[in-house]
Amino acid sequence: MANCPVFKVNPAFPGPKQSGPDAERFRSDDEISIDRWIRLCSQCKRCDVACPYGVNPAQIILREQSRFGREHFRSLAYRLFANNYWLGALMSIIAPLVNIMTPRTFVQRVLNVFGISTSIPFPHYRIHSMNRSWRWKGSRKSRKKVVFFYGCFINYNRPDIGRGVRDLLASLGVRVVIPRQVCCGLPALGNGDMETARKFARKNARILAEYIDRGYEVIYTCTSCGLTLTQDYPGILQVPDGKKISENTYNLHEYILNLIQERYIEPIFDSYHRRVAYHIPCHLRALGIGYPAARLFEKIPGLEVSILEDNCCGLAGSYGFKKKHEETSVKLGADAARAIKAVDPDILVTDCGACKMQLGYFAGMPAYDPSEILMKSLENFKAGK
Amino acid sequence: MSDLYDAVIVGGGMAGMMAAVTLVEQGKKVAVISKGDPVCCFSTGCIDVLAYGDDPLKGLGSLPDSHPYHLVGEGSVEKALALFRKTMSEGGMPYIGDVHANRKVLTSLGRWKTTCLVPETMEYADFDPDKYIHVISFYKMKDFYPQYITSRYANADYSVFDPGVITTAGIAEKFESRPFLDTFISWLQGLHIPEGRIAIPAVLGRSLVGDVYRQVSAGCDRKVFEIPTLPPSLPGLRLFAGLKNALLRKGVDLYWGRGIYSVEKLGNRIEAVTLANAGRTTRVEGKAFILAAGSFVSGGLQASMDAVTETVFDLPTYLPGTRDVWFKDDFFAPGHEIEKAGIRVDASFRPIETDIENLHVCGSILAFSEIMKNRCGHGMAIATGVAAAQACGGLI
User: Does A139 or B157 have the greater pLDDT score?
Assistant: First the structure.
């Protein structure tokens, strides 16, 4: 319970132990779920990481959250965010209008009425989204071939990062393919809509499995998408080929480290003199792969990195965008921002899109993706192969 | 450029973390792997070195020859504890006490616990039972009953404050907010507590720098101390956070939340361990390995009906005879024979009866440590962690 960010700031949530394994003993499939507070869990999975005995409270809670969602009325905010992919697609088409409208007071009032929080500004949407970008790069003959799973945040809000990652991988001698893809399914799962989550997941699985069969590996930068692909596809979502996807999916930085370790590339890192606060997203912790971007940062001369891993940003995908979670989210965001400011950084870096939005706002400085730092340092590097 | 670690430490408890501090300060590249948060989170946050006599270091002489402390030696135990204190002070959480003097700490049952080094917030916990003591309790706080304490001492009283929440973590979080702290301090001032000491369950803030404690002390102008509570124990959590943050600051790589899936050996050397991830394993390669996975509670050792096994490298374990020899009904009886079970090591903390060359073992998994009997848990973990790391560092 001491690891649970929600529990710390919201006494209404009984904590992972009580709402997970403890309450589970009293639950029955024959009875309708009555644990209204189950939705207070933000699925940061810090309890799963903390427990040394292999109990995964967040998994137990997730199952119950999706049962609760099935058995009870879900408000508009839940339905909207579950379909974040379609929402994003729409917003992206009318991006200039959206970007002008969302900061306006009357629009925000309307959003509040529908249970949507406006405590942090809405992200800017981009017309030229990722799925309208150049769909491949690098030689077909390359020994290393990857499919890039970019995720909704990069797709609709920060396609520049996505295109940067594509170019970075290509410059490292890796062939990158960016097939049509949909949302990983996590927003639907987190908003209690297992059916929609499965639909998304099945669609992605078909596409990704086909590439894997042809010798490609899957790369992600969004740690939440990554966790969903590797943990939930074969797990709670029971996707066909889930295991295959899980076995062949890599974090971008983990993948680059492997390239270096296998001596496929021996990159020369240019110096980059900055003091960096690296906020570790909860789901990067949950992946259990260590902090591969931090290991790459160590190779960059001049870069001084402070790793901050004890705070959840509090936004947790769409969790903090719901009015009822606003207070929890704001408190956690302010806490995490304090920790960032305490190291007095030149720049803030974090992998997760939600963390970027939340902490960029609360810390009052733009939040960068770790890959953007690599791009800077490897600007002049081209793999000779 | 190779991405090989100089040392990979299996186990993120006191021993493993102190081993990591030792090696990283020698300039080594270190990784720590842990299945989850260690048992020191459940502890009082105090460093017990040895519960015998007034001077725990002098008491080492009275331990049987087989005890792991003898592998370290008195002088090195003292140095290891100094390194621990230095590491914690750098993180803003100084430890109080003299390594040559045991001290007492009041427990939530009103009894005394013998320990050696204590966090700043427990500096005044060894109060004089004849002088006045005032216990502060919190309304409906779980697992804390001030009457346990006041009924034991003639000169004691208590007051109850209502923080609005009932759990230790919840109350500690409240103390992080300035208005709450001010309300509490003015309430405390309004009590007009007579000259004496004030005892408060360990909920004075979640962060480890002790700001809340210092402000409460200054606000009521009395000597204040914290009483360690049942888990979740804030002083234990602060201790863990303090050490873990030190590792991050010094550039140690952490792999948290996943157990070891397999071990790759080549000849007499361990080449890598792999972590069990959702679908695929993550490989962590190292020149040397340190096992600090803890004993039965942490899962480093596992007992079955007829054997005790070591769970990561499958090392040969020592057992004090067959089950009918060591079995006793009362597990908590001091001096239970099963406490001697564990891994036997040579003078450089390498496991004996095995051909593995690049493995060192430290912490409570060591045979003959008898932690509950000797009450030497954290002290021994720190001492053997540092010593094993030094032995390991000399070879890589």
Answer: B157
